[in-house]
Design goal:
It comes from Arthrobacter horti. Keywords: Carboxypeptidase, Glycosyltransferase, Hydrolase, Membrane, Multifunctional enzyme, Protease, Transferase, Transmembrane, Transmembrane helix. It is built from 21 helices and 20 strands. The N terminus and C terminus are likely disordered.
Length: 760
């Protein structure tokens, strides 16, 4: 309840204004005798000039909300990270302990509920103290609030160099302006509104602005739950945040706290017993240091960083990037994301243990999207953005996303990784889209595709040569040496046979259909750093049939989600909604979903990719997912970059394991020890596979685990007559060491970006 104002000294009254201005004029060293006579008699005097100066000062104060911390939250509302330039969380006066309200008034402005913004008694007291050779502040809480509001506005306008704090730095004009604004503000706002604004804006520490942040920083509690000793301590801090810091200056802070308690007792706000008990209480802090920024997220630092880049790249959040940065750091946004903590926690644990804590050369990554919505549900990798968080790899690069977005803005990602045989379903899709069948037979014995080979293409020439007689080229090779035979397209994909994929491409009515399918799946790369935007995968380069060009895991997951969603591609999204501290909403992301593949084609692809898991290279994955599963393994030519992209009806996960540093595509994954186990050569099913399966075992039940829709029979049975058989040459076989456990994943077989059949 606000106390009644003293009518004699209330600056809202005529007499109060005269008395107030007397004090102001004295403070400014201006002659005030003229104010004691009628205004009409005051002409040509210093007093009249003072009155004019005062009248000309601005009388309106725009109270913009002070900068507040932005929260990035998961789909369930749990906090992922906090982003701010000033750590502040606004709370209402009702959500503050009465001890802090009474304490701050008692020590800073005990006549707060009596004056009208400027306290003549306080000014007079300060003048007397000055005359005696000492100093005493005369600023009311209202004046301090006005000063803070002005400074906050300057900071928001990137004019921090103009900020002036309370004290001797203020000029006479500044002090007069502050007084006039305070008087005007008291006419617009109630005392409680001013006190609430002050306690939310005032500086306590570089880590804590406002009472809520200060309570959590110094005592690990809320402003509502502050005890009397804690509240008195914080009320004492504002006078000198450095001098009365209870952490670094406990003795000074205790002395100041006790002065606050004395003042509260004198005002009758606490009893003598409360006072005495509080004075006896030791100065004990319990510090909770805020962790500012995505790098300190304990759950999803790289996903958070991706979200931050999305905000900074979007004009909906400000006309310029500095505007967007200011909104993110000061706007008190709540950014609700699509991240599902039920998936994120297992994903992070899985990638952390995949390579082992002592491995600093291998990268592990997992990303899951939801088919039909495009929502990114988890995003994890085995590195950290800052040291000391349990990983030997410290990097800002996000393994899962592109380097740039479609407008050329940074996304924080890398250039992706060579997807290897996970690219083979693109050729399969083209085959099925032409009305051909999964069980049609192709000639997988052919290993030579010389210059001038008669590819059937209606758009542009095919670029690439696989011919030992061509300088610098080799014959096409399979990972398994005994698979140079006539086989069905289904068997070729199931066993990941390179020569079968090429035979399928050669038998197409139009080679350009492969490009059309890649475009339908939105496959692209940011590998070429000279380009300002992502580039489509050029499927006319033969090496790209086998995954030679680097692609981000999120891109691969979204492409396979098109199969899971029966041909409808949904663009990946990470932001569900954004609202600021005042309730203003900003546009979240809306996935663009469009049917880009014929539903029957997508269903038939899924039929084949289920065989990959049950009969092909995926069969080598020792851990089984308790739901119908389809997918494809992938390994690059050096076995240094390996993949599994797998999906149920409700989840699509891209799992990557391999080199992540410069020239990673040249790094060999042959004859390597990983996490205490020796691998003659690393295959997609060996490490990326178990990583995917062990993770999916824990999370598939949260989403649809039903059976896939059956593929139409017209895309399954045999009707195609293959070309004449070509006998394989002796030197066409891959002579590398092969595991004897079963079918393995075919690698890129060379090709690279040169399209000449060279090994990368």
């Amino acid at each position: 309840m606000a106390q009644a104002k003293n009518p004699l000294f209330d600056t809202a009254t005529v007499l109060g204004k005269i008395v107030a201005f007397l004090g102001v004029s004295a403070l400014c060293g201006v002659l005030v005798a003229g104010l004691l006579v009628p205004a009409a008699a005051v002409t040509g005097s210093a007093a009249s000039g003072s009155v004019q100066f005062f009248d000309d000062l601005p009388g309106e104060l725009t109270v913009n909300p002070p900068g507040q911390a932005t929260k990035v939250v998961a789909a369930d509302g749990s906090t992922i990270a906090t982003i701010y330039s000033e750590n502040r969380t606004r709370v209402s006066l009702n959500d503050m302990s009465p001890f802090i309200k009474d304490g701050i008034v008692a020590i800073e402005d005990n006549r707060f509920y009596e004056h009208g913004g400027v306290d003549p008694t306080g000014i007079a007291r300060a003048l007397v103290a000055t005359a005696k050779g000492s100093r005493q502040g005369a600023s009311t809480i209202t004046q301090q609030y006005v000063n803070n509001v002005i400074n906050e506005s300057l900071v928001a306008e990137n004019r921090s160099n103009e900020v002036v704090n309370n004290g001797a730095d203020k000029t006479v004009g500044m002090k007069l302006r502050e007084m006039k604004l305070s008087i005007a503000l008291e006419k617009k706002m109630s005392k409680d509104q001013i006190l609430e604004g002050y306690l939310n804006i005032v500086f306590f520490n570089s880590q804590a602005y406002g009472i809520e942040a200060a309570s959590r920083y110094f005592f690990s509690t809320s402003a509502k739950d502050l005890t009397l000793p804690q509240a008195a301590t914080l009320a004492g801090v504002v006078n000198s945040p450095a001098g009365y810091n209870p952490i670094t200056q406990p003795e000074n802070s205790t002395m100041r706290r006790n002065l606050v308690l004395d003042a509260m007792l004198k005002m009758g706000k606490i009893t003598q017993k409360q006072h005495d008990d509080a004075v006896k209480t030791p100065m004990v802090t319990k510090v909770t240091k805020p962790r500012q920024g995505c790098q300190y997220s304990e759950t999803a630092p790289y996903f958070c960083d991706y979200v931050e880049h999305l905000i900074l790249n979007d004009p909906a959040y400000g006309a310029t990037e500095p505007d967007r940065e200011a909104l993110l750091a000061r706007g008190g946004l709540t950014i609700k994301t699509t991240l599902d903590p039920r998936l994120q926690a297992p994903a992070q644990k899985q990638v952390d243990r995949t390579a082992g804590s002592n491995e600093d050369r291998w990268g592990a990554a997992l990303i899951t999207v939801q088919p039909g919505t495009g929502k990114i549900l988890s995003m994890a990798q085995n590195s950290r953005k800052v040291s000391g968080q349990g990983s030997p790899i410290v990097t800002d690069y996000n393994y899962n996303v592109d380097r740039i977005d479609t407008n050329g803005n940074a996304l924080g990602g890398m250039d992706g990784f060579q997807p290897g045989s996970t690219m083979k379903p693109v050729t399969l899709s083209a085959w099925l889209n032409e009305g051909k069948r999964t069980d049609d037979v192709v000639d997988a014995t052919r290993t030579v595709y010389p210059a001038g080979y008669p590819w059937k293409t209606t758009c542009q020439p095919v670029d690439g040569v696989y011919d030992p007689s061509y300088p610098g080229s080799i014959a096409l090779q399979n990972s398994e040496g005994n698979l140079y035979e006539r086989m069905t397209v289904r068997r070729g994909i199931t066993l990941s046979v390179n020569t079968a994929t090429f035979a399928t491409a050669a038998a197409l009515d139009d080679f350009c259909d492969i490009q059309r399918m890649a475009d339908a799946l939105q496959l692209h790369t940011t590998q070429d750093t000279t380009q300002k935007t992502p580039q489509k995968l050029d499927m006319h380069i033969l090496g790209n049939l086998l995954g030679s060009t680097q692609v981000a895991p999120m891109t691969m997951a979204s492409a396979f989600a098109t199969f899971a969603n029966n041909g409808t591609y949904c663009s990946p999204i990470a932001i569900d909604s954004v609202v600021d501290a005042q309730g203003k909403t900003y546009p979240g992301q809306t996935s663009t979903c469009k049917e880009t593949l014929k539903p029957d084609v997508a269903k038939a692809v899924t039929s084949v990719l289920q065989d990959v898991i049950t009969q092909g290279s995926g069969k080598l994955i020792p851990d089984k997912v308790p739901a119908p599963l389809a997918g494809k393994t992938g390994t690059n030519n050096t076995n240094g970059q390996t993949w599994v992209v797998a999906y149920t009806k409700g989840l699509v996960t891209a799992s990557y394991f391999g080199a992540v540093f410069d020239k990673a595509t040249e790094f060999s994954g042959q004859g390597k020890w990983v996490n205490g186990q020796y691998y003659p050569r690393i295959d997609g099913a060996y490490i990326a596979g178990p990583q995917m399966a062990q993770y999916m075992q824990q999370v598939v039940g949260f989403y649809d685990t039903g059976a896939f829709d059956p593929a139409p029979s017209n895309l399954l049975g045999s009707s195609y007559t293959p070309p004449p058989v070509q006998n394989p040459k002796k030197d066409d076989k891959n002579s590398g060491s092969q595991p004897s456990t079963g079918p393995t994943d075919g690698n890129t077989g060379g090709g690279g970006n040169q399209g000449k059949g060279k090994k990368p």
